[in-house]
Design goal:
Number of helices: 10
Helix content: 40-55%
Structural class: alpha/beta
CATH superfamily: Metal-dependent hydrolases
Distance between the termini: 22 Å
CATH architecture: Alpha-Beta Barrel
Radius of gyration: 17 Å
CATH topology: TIM Barrel
Oligomer: single chain
CATH class: Alpha Beta
Order of helices and strands: EHHEHEHEHHEHEEHEHH
Shape: globular
Strand content: 5-15%
Number of strands: 8
Length: 269
């Protein structure tokens, strides 16, 4: 197994929150999943956790649970990226936001690289036509969307719904978080012939047996996976240890740890 200090690493799934609401936001996420959070949710806490494994770049995001939060969250992500060059920012949108095309233009003008959606938090089905303007605008604007996918309590973010969107918008890069569908990994096969669907490793390796994780990586191809921690839910060192325990060949390991991040988001790592 490679030494951590010898690896190049990008974290493709990390959440940050403004200091004044970070504690409340992290507590709400922990309560939603009944999983204790490992860290505070501030940008500074993210950087501190990532230093343990020398993370070079972080995809940072936050989710607007109400339309009225969209603009302020996007401003916060932009400001955080300006202060921390290690950050690659993803904005947020909401199907009920009154000016989706205008906010997509603003997201691009601010230099943000994509959009994060969490249908379970935002309470909409991924394939709801109300969300189609988001997908159309992001596909046209070259903005990938990081989707929370899968939950055994809800159907909003089911892989089958994600597959509908990916088929309808083949130009849209869809990142199906949590190996394509948390607690619904049996349905990930739906993405096999959808090359615009990518995946991340976040919030999965603590639960998914190694042999199944390896089978999914082999089936979908390591070129479609990103390493992600779902910070502040998990600790960087802990997540990297879980990932390295898969024993992937160096080429596949490095593709997932940073090369795919570099290629898809067009940033140096």
């Amino acid at each position: 197994m490679a030494e951590m200090k010898d690896l190049v690493i990008a974290d493709a799934h990390a959440h940050i929150f403004p200091g004044k609401i970070a504690e409340k936001a992290v507590g709400a996420i922990g309560a939603f999943y009944s999983i204790p959070m490992q860290h505070p949710g501030s940008p500074e806490a993210l950087l501190e956790s990532g230093r343990a494994i020398e993370v070079r770049k972080y995809l940072v995001c936050s989710t607007a649970t109400r339309p009225g939060q969209v603009v302020s969250i996007n401003d916060f992500i932009r400001e955080s990226c300006a202060v921390h060059p290690e950050f690659v920012g993803f904005g947020t949108l909401h199907p009920s936001f009154p000016d989706i095309p205008g906010e997509i233009r603003r997201i691009r003008e601010m230099g943000l690289r994509g959009v994060k959606l969490h249908p379970d938090f935002q309470q909409f089905s991924i394939d709801d036509p109300a969300a189609f303007p988001i997908y159309e605008g992001c596909a046209e604007g070259g903005l990938p969307i990081l989707f929370h996918t899968g939950d055994d309590r809800y159907d909003w973010s089911a892989p089958a719904r994600m597959a509908v969107v990916a088929k309808r918008y083949p130009a849209l890069i869809c990142i199906a978080a949590h190996f394509g569908g948390y607690n619904h990994w049996q349905d990930v096969e739906l993405y096999r012939d959808l090359p615009n669907v990518f995946f991340d490793t976040s919030s999965t390796l603590f639960k998914l047996p190694q042999e199944r994780a390896l089978a999914l990586i082999e089936t979908m191809g390591p070129q479609r996976f990103f390493f992600g921690t779902d910070f502040p839910m998990w600790d960087h060192r802990e997540e990297l240890e879980r990932f390295l325990a898969l024993g992937l060949p160096a080429e596949a390991r490095d593709a997932i740890l940073y090369r795919n991040f570099q290629r898809v988001f067009e940033v140096a790592v």
